[in-house]
Amino acid sequence: MDDEVISLGQIFSILRKHVIALIVAMCAGGVFAAAITYLVMQPKYESTAMVLVNRKQTAVGQQYNDLQTDLQMINTYKDIITKDVVLRPVRENLLKKGVVVGSTGDLARAISVTNNQNSQVMSVTAKADDPYTARSIVNETAEVFRTKITTIMTNAKNVTIISRGTLNKSAVSPRKKINIAVGLLAGLVLGILFAFLRALTDRTVKDSSFITDTLELPLLGTITDIDSSSIKLGTKGLRPTAGHSRR
């Protein structure tokens, strides 16, 4: 017996047969994703400050080399910002101001530092559960870094806070629309898998051609369904067919 192959028409037939189940599964996935997004996930807010660090000015002929050195030092500055030498006084200052923060490790995970290629400007971003806390963290971090880096690295004399963190009341996560869309898609995929699983595990014979063509067996006869409403007790309402005798 040859392997069974599902045609494109059979695929559409299976999907059409289970269209209600697909819609229910897709809606269930969307509702589940919305519940997780709105009821479980904590909104996060961000604030960003821009910091520029230059080395000590040298002779005119050395300016190009100084620029290249400054670019190479960016990674060092990034590393210093997220270390205890900066974050410990940041945490102490925030607590004195009444801003509730976690440990220095929590602060390190809340702060990220980035810069564009060949740029001496660093973007210091803080993420927190509250927009006011995020702004306080990033501004205090930039201020402490500006003070500490001049003592840690003697050549880093020109530290400028180009822009301070601003209050951003729009949450950056979770992305509600994307989460719900993913939930709808996941529900639809699960519904399709369920429909095909039922179709593949259904071993009932749907067509007489399956017996003659696939199983290659002789067809002895067929039994049709009789509507229960048409069946009456006794002989009333029954009509004999050709080849049958009335009892």
TrEMBL record:
Instruction: Extract the PANTHER family matched here.
Output: FERRIC ENTEROBACTIN TRANSPORT PROTEIN FEPE (PTHR32309:SF13), TYROSINE-PROTEIN KINASE (PTHR32309)
**Which residue ranges run through the membrane?**
20-40, 178-200
Compartments, as annotated in UniProt = Cell membrane
Keyword Thylakoid in record: no
Q: How does it sit in the membrane?
A: Multi-pass membrane protein
> What family does the database annotate?
Belongs to the CpsC/CapA family.
Specify the species. Lacticaseibacillus jixianensis
Ranges of residues in domain Tyrosine-protein kinase G-rich = 154-199
Q: Give UniProt keywords alphabetically.
A: Capsule biogenesis/degradation, Cell membrane, Exopolysaccharide synthesis, Membrane, Transmembrane, Transmembrane helix
Main location per the UniProt record: membrane
Question: What pathway is this protein a component of?
Answer: Capsule biogenesis; capsule polysaccharide biosynthesis
Q: What is this protein's function?
A: Required for CpsD phosphorylation. Involved in the regulation of capsular polysaccharide biosynthesis. May be part of a complex that directs the coordinated polymerization and export to the cell surface of the capsular polysaccharide.
- Describe the location of the Polysaccharide chain length determinant N-terminal domain by residue ranges: 6-93
Q: What is this protein's record name?
A: Capsular polysaccharide biosynthesis protein CpsC
